[in-house]
């Protein structure tokens, strides 16, 4: 009896390891896409959030329009549009074009996260900074942003996991990330459950780890508030 | 006659169609302690914010040490503000910085003072307000009174020519008011030039050499505290002073006479 059951289990185990090894190669690509898109979205989002809050009437309207438009469309659609704009104007690989496009999509969401954080730091802190002779730029750099960025970590953590998962969209451009490799495995092995299950597991581990790391960052940078006595 | 430090002439401020004050003129001389009182919404805070250029007045001129700071070609607004200290009703310490760093940041980032020198100076200022032992505490770890004293130290560190106080004790629990007033009295004794919006009539009578009663965007009456308390020109002045003195649990002005 045992001899008849053991081989299939062993077989399944070996297959799982092989699946993980094959898909894990896509994990590097997924991480690379995310590590391009997220910081790019952060830089654009931060610049645009500052323009939105401190840039005056015209810039505020422009930023509002940008944010509304970008967040009003499915990311996959934007990805295609941006991909064709980017790859039409400069010669870029699908990896770079896709990552940049994802970063631009994310920038609109990060703009809103950072704008909210800056607004909740409040105008009074700016006033206090100006009152000791700081320029607006210095006040932003030394007083507003250090507080706003701390406040932004929890919602930003949420956006980071969204970008991590949305990086699977570059699959549509032919980039061999986790999902595409799972798809290939599923087709060649006829084991869709196993292939996609493995992909799901890897995504879960990535998102979970990223969130824990950012929780840790939030705790490390928390401003002490309880009376020390 | 001591020389004028801060002079305002015909300041007018409106928000939309709403005139906050019109044609206000005042002069703060070296070593003056001037107390401004007046009902809520009269424009006292707005006036202080105009004086250090945090808010732009619609018209009128302001001089600091004889230099017109409302003249855009004279000097940078940021430089002017360094020389006018400001203390707010709700303290407004930088929440992410310790008491020491709150006092230091203007020195290092605005005055570009070397770190060690700035630290020594900040410690001195904290000593002045009696809070060196709290140097490492964050605002959230300090009582309101302590926060306000750190805020005073932060302003003093910039070595301002004049200090503006906007109701520095009205957000404080009664038992914490004394420690802040004590620091302000000490400053006045040391000869700091101060313009103070406050309803603490005890402080006004003890420390101020001049009092201004503001109402509906105008200076209704000004003079020594004794003048305003004992011999006001307007019945309205007497009523108001009497009322806030009572509200703040002090003896009514009549009884003090
Ligand atoms: N940024 C602003 N925009 C529009 N109106 C304002 C603004 N700031 C103040 N005001 C108005 O100006 C008037 C004067 O306000 P201000 O705060 O200077 O009064 P105050 O004398 O300091 O009163 P309080 O004793 O309550 O502090 C108020 O009616 C207020 O609503
Ligand atoms: Mg006020």
Describe this structure in words.
The complex is a heterodimer of chains A (229) and B (257). By secondary structure, chain A is mainly α. Chain A has helices at residues 2-54, 56-71, 75-89, 94-121, 123-131, 136-166, 178-189, 192-220. In chain A, helix 1 packs antiparallel against helix 2 and helix 7 runs antiparallel to helix 8 (192-220). Chain B has 257 residues and is α/β, with parallel strands linked by helices. In chain B, a hairpin with a 2-residue loop joins strand 1 (4-15) and strand 2. Chain B is 39% helix and 24% strand. The interface between A and B is medium-sized, with 23 and 26 residues.
Helical amount of chain B? 25-40%
Overall, the morphology of chain B is globular
CA-CA gap between termini of chain A: 71 Å
Largest sheet of chain B: 6 strands, mixed
What is the H level of CATH, i.e. the homologous superfamily of the domain at 30-175 in chain A?
Answer: MetI-like
Please count the helical segments of chain B: 10
Under CATH, the topology of the domain at 30-175 in chain A is which?
Answer: MetI-like fold
Q: Which H/E pattern describes the elements of chain B?
A: EEEHEEHEHHHEHEHEEHHH
Largest sheet of chain A: none
Low-pLDDT regions of chain B: 250-257
Rg over C-alpha atoms of chain A, rounded to the nearest angstrom: 22 Å
Tell me which ligands are bound: adenosine-5'-triphosphate, magnesium ion
User: Beta-sheet strand percentage of chain B?
Assistant: 15-25%
Outline of chain A, from the CA principal axes? elongated
What pattern of helices and strands is seen along the backbone of chain A? Answer: HHHHHHHH
Give a quick summary of the entry.
Chain A has helices spanning 2-54, 56-71, 75-89, 94-121, 123-131, 136-166, 178-189, 192-220. With 229 residues, chain A is mainly α. In chain A, helix 4 (94-121) crosses helix 6, helix 5 runs antiparallel to helix 6 (136-166) and helix 6 (136-166) packs antiparallel against helix 8 (192-220).
């Amino acid at each position: 009896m045992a001899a008849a059951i053991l081989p299939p289990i062993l077989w399944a185990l070996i297959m799982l390891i092989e699946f993980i090894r094959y898909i894990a190669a896509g994990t590097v690509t997924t991480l690379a896409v995310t590590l391009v898109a997220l910081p790019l979205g952060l830089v654009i989002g931060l610049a645009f959030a500052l323009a939105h809050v401190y840039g005056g009437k015209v810039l505020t309207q422009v930023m509002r329009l940008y944010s509304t438009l970008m967040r009003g469309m499915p990311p996959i659609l934007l990805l295609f549009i941006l991909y064709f704009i980017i790859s039409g104007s400069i010669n870029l690989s699908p990896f770079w074009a896709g990552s940049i496009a994802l970063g631009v999509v994310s920038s609109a969401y990060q703009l809103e996260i950072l704008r909210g954080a800056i607004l909740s730091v409040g105008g009074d802190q700016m006033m206090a900074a100006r009152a000791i002779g700081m320029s607006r730029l210095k006040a932003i750099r030394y007083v507003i942003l250090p507080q706003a960025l701390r406040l932004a970590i929890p919602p930003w953590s949420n956006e980071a996991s969204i970008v991590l998962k949305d990086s699977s969209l570059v699959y549509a451009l032919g980039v061999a990330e986790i999902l595409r490799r799972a798809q290939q495995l599923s087709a060649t092995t006829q084991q869709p459950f196993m292939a996609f299950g493995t992909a799901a597991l890897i995504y879960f581990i990535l998102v979970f780890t990223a969130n824990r790391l950012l929780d840790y960052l939030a705790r490390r940078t928390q401003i002490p508030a309880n009376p020390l006595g | 006659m001591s020389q004028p430090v801060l002079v305002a002439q015909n300041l007018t401020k409106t928000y939309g169609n709403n005139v906050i004050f019109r044609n206000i003129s005042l002069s703060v001389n070296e070593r003056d302690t001037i107390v401004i009182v007046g009902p809520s919404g009269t424009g006292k805070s707005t006036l202080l914010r105009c004086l250090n250029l945090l808010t732009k007045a619609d018209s009128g001129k302001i001089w600091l040490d004889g230099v017109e700071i409302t003249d855009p070609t004279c000097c940078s607004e940021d430089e002017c503000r360094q020389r006018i200290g400001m203390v707010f009703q709700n303290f407004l310490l930088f929440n992410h910085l310790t008491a020491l760093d709150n006092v230091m940041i203007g020195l290092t980032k605005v005055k570009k003072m070397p770190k060690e020198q700035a630290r020594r100076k900040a410690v001195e200022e904290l000593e002045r307000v009696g809070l060196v032992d709290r140097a490492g505490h964050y605002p959230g770890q300090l009582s309101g009174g302590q926060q306000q004293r750190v805020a005073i130290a932060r302003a003093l560190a910039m070595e301002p020519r004049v200090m503006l106080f906007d109701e520095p004790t009205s957000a404080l629990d009664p038992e914490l008011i004394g420690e802040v007033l004590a620091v302000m009295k000490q400053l006045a004794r040391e000869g700091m030039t101060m313009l103070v919006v406050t309803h603490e009539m005890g402080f006004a009578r003890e420390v101020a050499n001049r009092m201004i009663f503001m109402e509906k965007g105008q200076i209704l009456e000004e003079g020594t505290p004794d003048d305003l308390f004992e011999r006001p020109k307007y019945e309205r002045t007497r009523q108001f002073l009497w009322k806030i003195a009572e509200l703040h649990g002090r003896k009514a002005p009549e009884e003090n006479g």
